[in-house]
Amino acid sequence: MISSGYPVKEYIDSAVRHVLLRHVIFYLKGPERHWCSVRNQGVLGIKVKIMLDWDPKGKQGPMTPLLDLVTIHPPKDEEESKEKKEYEAVVPQTNIEVPVQV
């Protein structure tokens, strides 16, 4: 999952929710008072991140593809590769003796 740069703004959808754990309610009754006190046992924070899929139409995801998108093209025909070989330069062989050090 990507975590930095501009694509994060387009491809990552995040949400945060806080869940209060167990409420304890105290009712205090006195001759002149009637009030309650609420105490929480803690808070649980949940953070969720979802990476959206690329959608060329832009209905369910971003229209711009990721920068590291790799496209694999089908191999070229053999006829095209033979034509290129015809244009390659031909290096003539020479019969020059190379001196050898003894």
UniProtKB/TrEMBL annotation:
InterPro entries: Ribosomal_S3_C_sf, Ribosomal_uS3
Protein name (record): Ribosomal protein S3 C-terminal domain-containing protein
Family of the protein in this entry: Belongs to the universal ribosomal protein uS3 family.
An annotated Gene Ontology molecular function: structural constituent of ribosome
Gene Ontology cellular component terms for the protein in this record: cytosolic small ribosomal subunit; nucleus
Species this chain originates from: Gossypium gossypioides (Mexican cotton)
Keyword entries, A-Z: Ribonucleoprotein, Ribosomal protein
Top-level taxon of the source organism: Eukaryota
